[in-house]
Structures are given as C-alpha cells and as structure tokens.
Design brief:
By secondary structure, the chain is an alpha/beta fold. The chain contains 14 helices and 12 strands. Bound molecules: beta-D-galactopyranose (GAL).
Amino acid sequence: MYLSRRRLLYGSTGLAVTAVAGCSSDEESAELTGFTGISMPTTTSERWVIEGEALENMLIDAGYDTILEYGEDEIEAQIEQIQGMIDDGVEFLIIAAIDNQSLGEVLATAKDRGVTIISYDRLILQTPDVDYYASFDNYRVGVLQATHILDRLSVEENSGPFNVEVFSGSPDDSNSQYFFQGGMDTFERYMYEGTINIRSGETEQEPTSTLRWDGVRAKDRMTGLLEDHYEDGELHAVLSPYDGISRGVVAALEEAGYIPGTADFPIVTGQDAEAISVKAIRDETGQTQTVFKDTRDLAEVAFDMVKRIVDGGSPEVNDLGTYDNGFKFVPSYLLEPVNVDASNWEEVLVESDYLSEDEIDEAEEWLEI
Ligand code: GAL
C-alpha cells in the first residue's frame, strides 16, 4: 500500500520516522523503508510532469511511500514543500531545484535527520549536503545544439558570414552554464574566423539569459534584438537552449515577418522534445531541432539510487569529477543526450514510444507566448 500525498501521511509513517531519524550508517540502512519526497520545479514544462509521475510510479511499485510536489517556479514554495516532506519523515529527497542556491538551509535540516539527497537533473550548489547527482551530459547538450546550426549553415563549405543570436537558460539553474558553454565553445572557432557573427554583441551568459526559462521573456528579448539589429531581415540562426524558449523566439520571428517553412526562416534549436516543438520540426513550421533527453531513463537512475541504498548498497555513479557544486564534486550518474531534427524525430521519439504520432498531431501550445 502506498500514499502519494503528504497530507495523507500523518500517522501512517510515524514508525518509519522514528526508525530512520538520524540514521545514515550501513547497518542502520537496513531499516529504511524507501519513503521518498520528490520535489519538482514546475508543471509548465512537459518533462517535469512526465518525470514526476514516472518516479512516483516506480517508487510506488517498489512499495515505497512517496510525496510528489511542484513548486510552480516559486522558490519559497519549493523550500516549504521540502520542509514539509522532511517533517513528514522522508528518508530520501529527489529534487529538481528552481533556484540552485536557495536550498542550503532546508537541506541542512534534512541532513540532520539522515535524509539522502539526490539532485535531479539540475545540480544544487553551495551546500555540502547533496549526496548524488542524476543528470545528463549537459555540456554535450549545448554542443549538439550549436553543431546543428553549423551543419545547417554548411560552414565548412560556406564562410558566410552568418548572423546568429544566442539565448541561454535561467541564470539560477546550474545547467544553463553547461548548455551555454557547450554551445559557445562549439561556435568559438567560427566566430574567430568571422563565419559566425553575433551582431548584438551579446556573447556572455548574463545578457542572453532567460529567467525561469520563460518563453515570453525570450520572445521579448528576440523582438528587441530584431528591432535593434535586423531591420534587413538577415538573421540566420538562433541558438536556443530549451523548447519553451525556442517557441518564444519563433513567435517573435513570425511577428517580425519571417515566414516559417521558407528558406529565409532562421534555424532555431531547442531541448526536451516537447510534443509541440517536435510537431514544428516535423512539419518545418518553426523550430528546426531539439535535444532529446530520455527522461524515462533519468527517472530510472534516480529510482535506482534510492533502491540500492534501501537494499543496503550504494548507488551506481559514472562521473566523479565534473560537477563541482562549490563544496565538492558530487558523485554523478550522467546519461547521453540525443540530437533530434527533421531526419530522425520518428526513429528517436516515436519508435522508442516516447511520443506517439497522435500526441504530436494533437499537440497544442500551452504556453502563453
Ligand atoms: C533545465 C533542464 C532542461 C529544461 C529546462 C527548463 O534544467 O535541464 O531540460 O527542462 O530546465 O525546464
């Protein structure tokens, strides 16, 4: 039997709370029940909804109590939710942080109670209390996005110059810097040679950032860039780190008179393989690329970390030296992201049952762009 909402938990887990409080050694871990709190950032991005449910189901199937909550991009709400989970006696926390630097205090409380803390997808910074990190090779995401642009512009045969603009993700999400760095390192040689030109001059992370990964903010910035630098309509590509941002960019391009599906429409990258973005890639109606991160696998990795500890072992990790959170290199398990464009969306997404043709056909914009 399981309970998946915290308000239902009082009384049912009293024993577990007493049993696990303060325990962290291997002998004591035999008493763990697997009680896990899942703290997700928002329901406005498809992936977190899919992963929240997937994680919840895996934990439930293993017989573990779970609590799943979404902070809806409110930093304080996420902190309160995590505190509530700790008060309810969770033994594990799986957290995709809204703000990577605001959880130190609440995680210190969790650590005092012997909770194992798994940083999920996004690395939590500036705290010694993160035990494990489950994520993707985030630098590689940026490399894939920039490589799509270079390939589509045929930079080896054609020296341009091509006009490109760059967007980065939320500045308080540690992933943003890895995506951005991967993209800019890939562009570097071509920028130096003059094949790629960023007319705005905005080549640093800060001015290109998009708080909360918000498509509306991205649209506004894109509109400003078009007005200030592209009156001639000569923008060739936009490096965008996430599908929601990409759709904001596309909306601004359309409003400025670029026509999707024509040769003059800029190349636009993305990430997360959201159904509505995949539809645009398939139909050539805007965004041209996304990066698929198989979130089913990521959920499995995080679940497996919990399970191994409950079973008395330690989690499998495959990287000990990349993700420095300011206190330590956090032991990580990293998965590989996959490039998706018009040539392979079906094979990568549909044949693997990540999205069905119907889901893509019926996908509609839900962001208020
Ligand atoms: C990042 C994540 C991306 C995307 C973005 C916006 O942290 O790695 O895949 O989901 O947040 O939600």
